Amino acid sequence: MANKMLHVTPRQCTACRNCEMACAFSHAVEGRPGTARIRAFPDPQGRPGMNAVVVCLQCDDAACLKACPARALWRNLATGAIYHVPDRCIHCASCVAACPFGNMRWDERISSPTKCDLCGGDPACVRFCPTGAIRFE
Question: pTM here?
Answer without folding.
Answer: 0.86
